[in-house]
Design goal:
This protein has ten helices and three strands. The protein has helices spanning about 5-20, 30-40, 45-55, 75-95, 95-120, 125-140, 145-150, 155-165, 170-185, 190-205; strands at about 30, 60, 65-70.
Length: about 210
Amino acid sequence: MSQEMKAADRAYREIKERILSGRLPGGDLVSENEMAGQLGTSRTPVREALQRLQTEGWMRLYPKRGALIVPVPPHEAQHVAQARYVVETGAVRALTEPARAALLIGLRASLERQRGLAAADDLDELAIVCVDFHSEIVAAADNPLLTSFYGSLRDRQRRMNSLALHRADISIDRLAEQHTRLADLIEGSDADGFAAALTQHLTAVHGVTVRGLG
């Protein structure tokens, strides 16, 4: 890989990270010069990174004006939450007892990690750990197709979490309680209870309406 390609890849990763973490909020307009200065690089790799991010739907480029950070559309938040509900509830219903036992070890460890990050007010890392918490549930069902599909939602899920955690009305303690409740329901093999609790959790965190499908 050439040095120019490496520089463009680094710029892409850094700018995308800023979008997913909310440090570049939706609706902001940034310029090549501004980003190049912040990243300590030339405009060429930044231009290539912005074009790639536009292709992925994170930005819209306007010649001579800059790049607009695309906000999370209301329908996208709804669709992501609904897709997560379908996959996560399906995964819980498919768990074998050995898989359930192994999963709970990981979930309990994650809950401890979440509490520590909340106490440290490290919301950026907490957003990632929360994504991983839910991803562990899906992976435990040992269905590669479900795991792959759920993984395709990861960036959107991460960004939605970052936005939610920085809202003034969000309760970090309440979030931990909801995750603990989900783990407890998995431990009790209560798939219906998990589905109801997940509905409440997604609605409370992301402000969207999630409905069961059957």
